[in-house]
Here is the input.
Amino acid sequence: MAEPWDVVIIGGGHNGLVAAAYLARNGLRTLVCERRDIVGGAAVSEHPFGAGYTITSLSYVVSLLPAELVRDLRLDRHGYHVYPQGPYFAPRADGRYLRLPADPGERYAEIAKFSVADAERYPEYEARLARIAAVLGPLLTQIPPRLGSRRPRDLLAQGLLLRHLRAVDTRLAVDLTRLLTGSIADLLDAYFTGDALRGVLSVSGVIGMWAGPRSPGTGYVTLHHHIGESGGQQGAWGFPRGGMGAVTAALADAARSFGAEIRTGAEVAAIDTRAGRAAGVTLASGERIAASTVITTAHPKLSFLRLLDPAALPEDFVADIRAWQTRSGTVKINLALDRLPVFAAHPEFDPQVHGGTIVLAESLDDIENAFQQAVGGRPATLPFADICIPSVFDDSLAPPGRHVMSLFTQWVPDSYAEAGHDRELESYADRVIARLETVAPGFTGSVLHRQVIGPHQMQEEYGLVGGNIFHGELTMGQMFHARPAAGYADLRTPVRGLYQAGSATHGGGGVTGIPGRNVVRQVLADLRAERIGARIDRWLPARTR
Here is the structure.
């Protein structure tokens, strides 16, 4: 066998590349093994319509990637650039539209077109979310303590958590509880009455979720999106130049610049162990790669039920992984257009409209009904869509005068992850296009090419088990210290020398890079502890002689 690596990382998505860059920067010989022939995972730019069009296949906006990480890895030197995304724009079937611009005065006027009372209460709603985000946001970047553990190290970490929460007063404690356990409908019903505003705001509570706006827990999902930042602006999102694949390409270049090696077309078939400790990986080709430390960024059901023998793991840990909820009814539709859509309600070109988040959702009940249809086993008759046209800002994505459009839509039955259902998906996509045609007459004739990616393709091609973009649902039973198993939210695993850093770990759920950065802290801490322990072992025999 070749000389062992210090670290082997399974998966070349954004978290794996972040970890590789930080590890190599710290002087560790690091190898990334990526199954596909391209790095990026779910944050990848591809060319299904030919070389002239660059499509962000799945993940389509950047938000929660910390500014500190961007600086540490010098991503701007590797082509990383983000265009701020415009505000929500929701065209309606009755010919009206709702926008939510950043300027408070403009936003008041927009909401007041539908309800003056809603416009007056909106600042209070935003202030409540901001107050809660100020408490929970910093926790996303930290390594969770092992709640319930009595070990001194864990008790110290629990104490530090309590110190962080000391700013929580009795009112905020109740607000936190209600937001974390309630639905986005509960939250919105406390402030607003108009269908237009409640419909638009409820979308952020159900994106990527197997849950409707009236499902418990969707209040937190709204906050999760609200926490994001781009360019230092809280709650802002942006389009990376070159698509999301440019983000992971910059991360890959940064990792290589520090000395990491990245191998594509290198599918890992097994995680090797020896005497209860990670010893490297075996590739599908049969090649064995030795390493004293292994980090897996794959979905936990793949990592711990397929790449490892579950019999070698603790029963309660395996039970947690088997019970891990990773359902989805998401369908991603990518289009190439020969012109921008002309909205009946706002026919003139406006970068704040065409370059914003275009939402197809008439009301909260409209969205809830779509979910209930999928729960009942039928694709939604009237799917909602979260749409963006990144080529409005980024001319590298399409030929002159043409554009690419990303439509993130829901729902189809979660059972669609187990089979292709190609005909049903095409009919579903037809209904999404028809819905867009209703608010932008002539849109259908502008479509040059169409790609429809359903849950099965997400699972089989991109490793998103169940088609879940977060590697696991963002519900309270699967967040913070419970993500993805009791006692292992600190990114360690039951196998010594084996770590986890995928989106199913704390800080994941979106293109954050936080698990990739935090796992390096754990690896380096454990390596230091091992070196200190080895020195003590050498010193003690000498003292006893």
Notes: The first helix runs from residue 14 to 25. The longest strand covers residues 288-296.
